[in-house]
Structure formats: structure tokens, C-alpha cells
Amino acid sequence: MVRVETDDRVHTVAFDRPDAKNALTAGAAADLVDALEAAEAAGARAVVVTGDGNAFCAGGDIEAMAARDETPGEAYDRVRDSLSALIETVLTLPVPVIAKVNGDAVGAGTNVAAACDFAYAASEARFGEVFGNVGLIPDSGGTFILPALVGLRTAKELAMTGRLFDAGEAAEMDLINRAVPAADLDGEVRELLDTLDRKPTETLGL
User: Do the Cβ atoms of 46 and 193 come closer than 8 Å?
Assistant: First the structure.
């Protein structure tokens, strides 16, 4: 459920469910972990995470959630072993990880982008901590990463209201590095990759 491309020692890992706005399942999270670890093993100097189609990641797959019959303990174990494992991998990968947010990134999509070392987004992309809208608390590292980036008060507002906001506001609150016109997104990320390629990768990882 992810697509991997390798070019000039840059591994691009794309969520590959465009028909479902790249909604994230436990299987997709595991595939992404495998792809990130493979990039490190192959000697990649950077990893780009993006989405196929017109979305980055629409968060968890609501239909899959509704179909589950599990206890709270089983749900906790599933999230820990999938989404939490994905965020831990992103945070600890010893090469720079760049989120190229080509479209909406909500719920887990917001938090995956937040976990990356850099995040550039198309101006029209929307973000949102929408977990409370379906009776959940922010997973995918949100309760840890979000206040660290935007501050506790703003994090509470986003988590409790579940409102959507655009990439410009995301940049203003330091959730992402930069919002750029969609036509410029590839070039902005390429410029960053060229800069990082001139740096000592091991030092950046440390």
C-alpha cells in the first residue's frame, strides 16, 4: 500500500491508496516502516514521504475502524504496533525525512507530516487534528509532537475543536516549514534535497 522510488540516493515513499485519499491502515503503516528501514539499509541520504493522487493522507481508514470487533486493550496494541511504530521509525531514522504534502493531511496524516524532520506543503493542502470528531484522542504521536511544535495552548485548540486549517496557517504555527504553490512544491523539495546532499549525512543523523 506504499510505492517506493529510488533516485540519486533519495528514497521517495508514497502512500498508494489514491482512491481512498491515502487513508492509513495498519498494513499501510507497516509497509511504510519497512520502506523507511529499507531506505536506511540501502544507504539513502534522504527520504521523501508523500501521497499519490490529490491527497497526502486522509488519516485512519474509518471504514476499517468500523468493521473491527476488538477490546480496548486490543485496540491499544494495534495502534502501538502500527501507527506508533511508524512515528517512532520516522523520528529515529538516521537520515533526514521530508514530508512533501501534496494535498490534504488530516488526522494521522497531520501527525506523520509533523513527525518528519522537514515538511513542505502545497498551499491548498489542509490539516486537522480531527480525532475528536470520531471519538478518538490524537494518535500517531500527536499528543507528544503537536505541543512540541505549536505550543500547548494551540495544540489543545486544534485537538479539541478538530477544525481544518490550510497550509499557510500550518506554517505560521510552525507545524510545517513552508507552504508553497502546488506547482512549486517539487522544486522546493528538490532544492532542500540538494542542500542536504552537500552535508555529512551521518552528522545530520546524529
Answer: yes
Query: Which residues are within 8 A (CB) of 8 and not within 5 positions of it... i.e. 6 or more apart?
Result: 197
Cell reading at 88: 517512532
pTM of the model: 0.91
Long-range contacts of 13-19 (CB under 8 A, 24+ apart): 13/39, 13/47, 13/48, 13/49, 13/50, 14/49, 14/50, 14/51, 14/52, 15/50, 15/51, 15/52, 15/56, 15/57, 16/52, 17/52, 18/51, 18/52, 18/53, 18/54, 18/55, 19/53
CA–CA distance, 54 with 189 (Å, rounded to integer): 17
The answer to whether the CB of 127 falls within 8 A of the CB of 79 is: no
Grid cell digits, residue 11: 528514497
Note down pLDDT in tens along the chain; length 206 residues.
789 999 879 999 999 999 989 998 888 889 999 999 999 889 999 999 999 999 999 987 666 655 566 677 766 666 666 788 899 999 999 999 999 999 999 999 999 999 999 999 999 999 999 998 888 889 888 999 999 999 999 999 999 999 999 999 999 999 999 999 999 999 999 999 999 999 999 999 99
